[in-house]
Amino acid sequence: MKNIFIGRNYLSFYLLILLLVNLALLKLPLTNVFGYEFSVINSLLIVLLSGIYTIIFFDNNFSKKNRNFIPELFKSLLLFLIIPFSVSVINSAFSGFCSFSDGLLFYIVITCPSIIIGISLGLISVLIANRFRVVLLFMLCFGILMIITYEIYFNPQVYVYNPLIGFFPGTIYDEGISVSGKLILYRFLNLLFFGWIISAIVRLKRDKKKRLIFFVAKVLFVPVAFFFLAPYLGFSTTFGSLTNMLSKSVNTEHFVIHLDKRIGKEKIKMLTLNHEYYYQELEKYFEVKLDEKIHSFIFYDNDQKKDLFGSRNADVAKPWLNQVYISMGNWEHTLKHELAHCFSAKFGTGFLKLASGLNPMLIEGIAEAADGNYDDNSLHFMAALAYNSGYDVDMKNLLSKFGFFSKASSISYIYAGSFTQYLIDNYGISKFKEYYLTGEFPKSYGLNLNHTLKEYYSFLTNSDYSYTEHQAHYYYGRRSLFQKICPRAISEQLNDGWEQFSEYDFTGAQLSFASILSKTDNYAALMGLIRTYEKQDSLFEAVKLLKTEIEFYESTSYYYNLELTLADLLAKLDNFKSADSLYKVLIKQQPNRKLNYI
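Below the sequence we write its predicted structure tokens.
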């Protein structure tokens, strides 16, 4: 290995690394398609490899007094971009593209600038150090990546813009990621800055110490200045910039609630009362008292939360900051859960004040247990429903970091909450706090985990709840993000389709939804196409489509809403006998009490 790094250039070695990594990415979910995750991983990898290659290339050419080596270096590094592109495109040509145009845009905007960034970091390493230049390169990359940690930890945001990866949205629950104008601007600024570094270093005379110090000072000044300007450019969110947008505030005994000015007085009053009510319940449940007020940020809608905070669909807590971030339309379902995370911080560990090992089952399990219900059902009812209806899980796998996310979120959260509540009911909150803090089950409980899990399974099996298979399908018949086909591209196409629909471009919407259905059985696209037919007074076409497609959704969460939609369409066509028959079937199935009310 030593000879490889001190040899002439060994371009083939770096290309082989790229090839092997990209072949491995084809075996993983999300990275196996030509899209966002694929582009991000290759961006980081190419920065590192091009930086190392630049260091060796510079040494070989500088020893020959070849000062005009940059064009030759660029030609070599273009191969770094060609290999990942070729691997993914050839694979997609056989397995099917999600969206070639989206994938290409991600690759151009996120991955292509990486060779410029890698070259500049490699040259900085050469300029500063005479030895251990590769080590310095890794330290520079690590330092740049640590900016991500800083912003997520200290700022009220989960999204980040970073030179090494371009953009990270913050949560896995927002499927829609696209190349925005803001991301294009950010990468353009990256190219300007790192391109200037390359140009300046090539022209710099290294024997002039004053010039060298002045250059390093300028290189440091630009990112520091950008750090302070970023909130104004929309590349980060600070406490000050967020409270400027959520300009209303309410101070209570235990909260500082920040709200969008469009939220009315009656809604604010309801929110305030529920904040304090949940606080009293959680204080009693956890048997702890908080030292400081909780800052609660209430966004007008999901779009505002996406723009300012970074997460559209998921409400989030930051226990280490004692803050929660909630969309106005979601608070009745999520507020208590997110507040519970702030209480669990009292017995959390590390600088994040979370469970030992950042175990997601413990983190989300205690919040679910403290919340106490799911869609007005008890957690034990929901877990027994899943377990006894074929939606069982390996709890030991769920306790692992990645096993929790391998299932649909509804299943993972419910089992985590139910098992946590089972432990607390049988052994008390104090033992669970110790387990949360240490992550060591036998030490905390003095019990064998496998034996305890068997007892929990027996508890679910022998429960006296009454339920139907239709309830199980309704709640659990969904796929996780990792099980879906082309989730990123499909989400963007859905957004386009619904935007066309809202703008009365029904022909365009019809084409968008039909394109999605040609790739996968997507409920939202099917409903979009049905609503489009309705708007075009093509009810017969809508009924024909639904009768053809509904069988593919049997035993899924969506089947019952499709039954209801079909019954409504038949009623609109005055086919009351068939409609009434379907309504009666739906009432008999009882998948969800709300459907009965409808």
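The radius of gyration is 28 Å.
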